[in-house]
Amino acid sequence: MARHLITSALPYINGIKHLGNMVGSMLPADVYARYLRQRGHDVLYICATDEHGTPAELAAKERGLPVAEFCAQAHDAQKAVYDGFELAFDYFGRSSSAQNAEITQHFARKLNENGFIEERAIRQVYSPADGRFLPDRYVEGTCPHCGYDKARGDQCENCTRVLDPTDLINPRSAISGSTDLEVRETKHLFLLQSKLQPEVEAWIDQVGGEWPQLASSIARKWLTEGLHDRAITRDLDWGVPVPADTWPELAADGKVFYVWFDAPVEYIAATKEWADAAPAGEVRDWKSWWYEADDTVRYTEFMAKDNVPFHTVMFPATELGVREPWKKVDYVKAFNWLTYYGGKFSTSQKRGVFTDAALDVLPADYWRYFLIANAPESDDSSFTWEHFAATVNKDLADTLGNFVNRVLSFSKKRFGDEVPAGGEPGEAETRLGAETARLLAEYEEQMEALQFRKAAAALRALWSAGNSYLEEKSPWLEIKTDKDAAALTLRTAMNLIHLYSVVSEPFIPATARAMRGAFTLVDDTAAWVAPQEAAALTAVSAGVPFTVPPVLFAKITDEDLEGFRVRFGS
């Protein structure tokens, strides 16, 4: 089987993420990783918190904490939420790790040796009161376009216009509030992306043909507009330091690398963190996943569209420039936006549903299924409470949950605590087996193609096939005239429940465990269901003890909906 390296966009450290962030990167990556593991592939799913940059320092300042302490606490808080969503990372690292500093500095030295880094003097805002140069986000003021008085030096959050610090009216330091600001000359390192553009174009021509149109069109748009040399250092206290052995003057000035230079390196560094964290007696070879791995590893990245340029153009340029055989992405699964009633989710303005609050309202599987079934793949999709409730009630409560409860409860009532025997399968069971095998193949095809909405539709059709069979056979009527026929129907339906427990696991892992745990099977080690097994439906034989699990999915009522609207707004 193939080796699959999977990464999702690194969640930024300054706060719990919203549902749009979850569905745009980490959740689909987890679903895909789970599926591949079940199919027998060697999978490594790596993620980490992105911890450097101005927003981290500002968030720490607001909390009155040293930035390192703030980031450590925020990492643990985010990891707890992702555990709640059952994201099965092989490792969830931190971009502030020593491993990331080591590899980032190695990349910078190599780029410099190869002529792709240049030291340039630029003019930048300086605050005498703070005794430091101010990065763009450390300058606040009034937006010249809309009058918003808390605009940052890089962008106005109110009207979204891109700004320069010198554009702001009445600019002030975000650190001290001082308005005594000057423009002084300082030096920074620039990555000469313009020199690397032909190589990036050639690489995208080679691998980008199979990417989704969203990813390839964004990458090619950036290349068409031309890659510009980009400053890769900042004046911050928190970040990967510029190495003194290569740039002593800049190191003495306290320069650190720009967060967008070191953050993608963290994918590699987090893999080294994973290897370094191996328990005693276990050896993990991190380099085999990243170095000289083009022929042995299939690398898939998951991210929302705003992250695409950095991962398809900027970081590949860095990897090409170091002139070492580091693994570059094979497939970029990009997503559009999930909106909240048609408007943007906003972390800073607390607009929408955030992942910790989501888990406080309902268990993870409700969210996992809804988000993947409505993933913003071809275009933006809108979250509304009405749509969420309708999906949960129809697909999860009625189609899957009600099927499981009806079958097991009725069988327990009429046949006891063991799977009934019944007669031999007939024409209806043969048709059901063929339809189950066909739908399973469709589900597999869509999962292999990373078409998540279509995969969810195929999974839903599998669940619906069970309901159609149950309605056709009507065991509650059969039992009045032919007890063996009713037993056969129930035994077949129980085999469907077991099949659902296996193949639904990537979407709804907790529910899958509950369904599988209903049957006391000896050595139930099935990782997946083969076509012939799907057609035969004989994994659960007569006489196997079973229990009726608690209700899998509770319906969302009108009263619940009103409570959600009051709590979260609409």
TrEMBL record:
Motif range ('KMSKS' region): 344-348
GO BP annotation list: methionyl-tRNA aminoacylation
Protein name (record): Methionine--tRNA ligase
InterPro entries tied to this protein: Anticodon_Met, Met-tRNA_ligase_1, Met-tRNA_synth, Methionyl/Leucyl_tRNA_Synth, MetRS_core, MetRS_Zn, Rossmann-like_a/b/a_fold, tRNAsynth_Ia_anticodon-bd
Note accompanying the cofactor annotation: Binds 1 zinc ion per subunit.
Compartments (UniProt record): Cytoplasm
Native organism: Streptomyces uncialis
Enzyme Commission code(s) on record: 6.1.1.10
Keyword Mitochondrion in annotation: no
Segments forming domain Methionyl-tRNA synthetase anticodon-binding: 419-569
Stretches assigned to coiled coil: none
Transmembrane segments: none
Motif 'HIGH' region: chain residues: 11-21
Description of how the protein assembles with itself and partners: Monomer.
SUPFAM superfamilies given in the database record: Anticodon-binding domain of a subclass of class I aminoacyl-tRNA synthetases, Methionyl-tRNA synthetase (MetRS), Zn-domain, Nucleotidylyl transferase
